[in-house]
């Protein structure tokens, strides 16, 4: 089901700036037993990023009602929320008083193999780099061409994710995920001040690590750091946390820190 500005329709104006220029934002949210998981955190990011882009923030009460309507009766699914600057004719200049477009849609749960979360996955490196733009860093904006190009680099179903670097060769994350390493029992995750998406699950893991008295460092990470790591895992709002067992030629154990965080996350969100 799709709601566009509250109406059940799949038709959108061809002049919508989200379609024309990627001028907007989106959130991808897990739905379990009719409940949008970490909804408050997703909404907080959406509202903050709307303000960063000077897009009028959707009315909270309206959005809450639409989300509740779409999630009702869904045992397990995916909710996507898109907010664009709305229609504005041709040209980059925004209309003086934009009327945002609000798109909510519900989708089937991805066909993730159970082995991905239970045993772990294999990662590969992507050739496509992420460009630097501190003004957009951290946002989940609609302009995702870098991720599209990176994900189209391979078609091996046994490799569900690839690692993306920035223009200087530092590790940023996956095409659809954030990344953590464990070194000497402590967590490290890439600095996203120049590029990348600051995921809601990433933020949740940082909170849980603090609750577990785990030291966390946000820093620049290299490929050598990944190869030397004791443990490696990726995360997003749908997969939760997936251990990485192999990255290129490096193999990793199913480590105790990864397992502890995984149990903590699932217990908190179930």
TrEMBL record:
Which GO cellular component does the record give, naming just one? cytosol
What Enzyme Commission number(s) appear in the record? 4.1.3.38
Cofactor dependence? pyridoxal 5'-phosphate
Gene Ontology biological-process annotations: 4-aminobenzoate biosynthetic process; folic acid biosynthetic process
Q: Tell me which InterPro entries the record gives.
A: Aminodeoxychorismate_lyase_IV, Aminotrans_IV, Aminotransferase-like, BCAT-like_C, BCAT-like_N, Class-IV_PLP-Dep_Aminotrnsfr
Quickly give the catalysed reaction: 4-amino-4-deoxychorismate = 4-aminobenzoate + pyruvate + H(+)
Protein origin, superkingdom: Bacteria
Q: State whether keyword Repeat applies.
A: no
Keywords of the record, alphabetical order, are: Folate biosynthesis, Lyase, Pyridoxal phosphate
| Molecular function terms, GO-annotated | 4-amino-4-deoxychorismate lyase activity; pyridoxal phosphate binding
| Protein's pathway | Cofactor biosynthesis; tetrahydrofolate biosynthesis; 4-aminobenzoate from chorismate: step 2/2
Q: Which Pfam families match?
A: Aminotran_4 (PF01063)
- General function of this protein: Involved in the biosynthesis of p-aminobenzoate (PABA), a precursor of tetrahydrofolate. Converts 4-amino-4-deoxychorismate into 4-aminobenzoate (PABA) and pyruvate.
Q: How does it assemble?
A: Homodimer.
Q: Which family does it belong to?
A: Belongs to the class-IV pyridoxal-phosphate-dependent aminotransferase family.
Q: What is this protein called?
A: Aminodeoxychorismate lyase
Q: Which organism is it from?
A: Nitrosococcus wardiae
């Amino acid at each position: 089901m799709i709601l566009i500005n509250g109406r059940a329709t799949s038709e959108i104006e061809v002049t919508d700036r989200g379609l024309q220029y990627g001028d907007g934002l989106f959130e991808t949210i897990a739905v379990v037993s009719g409940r949008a998981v970490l909804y408050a955190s997703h909404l907080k990011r959406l509202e903050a990023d709307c303000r960063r882009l000077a897009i009028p923030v959707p009315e909270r009460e309206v959005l809450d009602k639409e989300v509740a309507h779409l999630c009702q009766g869904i045992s397990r699914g995916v909710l996507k929320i898109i907010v664009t600057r709305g229609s504005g004719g041709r040209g980059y200049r925004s209309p003086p008083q934009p009327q945002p477009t609000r798109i909510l849609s519900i989708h089937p749960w991805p066909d993730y193999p159970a082995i991905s979360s239970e045993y772990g996955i294999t990662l590969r490196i992507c050739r496509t780099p992420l460009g630097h733009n501190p003004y957009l860093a951290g946002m989940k904006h609609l302009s995702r061409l870098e991720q599209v190009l990176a994900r189209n680099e391979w078609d091996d179903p046994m490799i569900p994710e690839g690692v993306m670097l920035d223009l200087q060769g530092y590790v940023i994350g996956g095409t659809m995920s954030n990344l953590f390493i464990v070194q000497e029992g402590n967590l490290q995750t890439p600095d996203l001040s120049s590029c990348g998406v600051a995921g809601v699950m990433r933020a949740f893991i940082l909170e849980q690590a603090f609750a577990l008295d785990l030291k966390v460092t946000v820093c620049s990470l290299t490929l050598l750091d990944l190869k030397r790591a004791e443990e490696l895992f990726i995360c997003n709002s749908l997969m939760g946390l997936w251990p990485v067992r192999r990255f290129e030629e490096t193999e990793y154990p199913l480590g105790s820190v990864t397992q502890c965080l995984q149990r903590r996350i699932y217990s908190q969100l179930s």
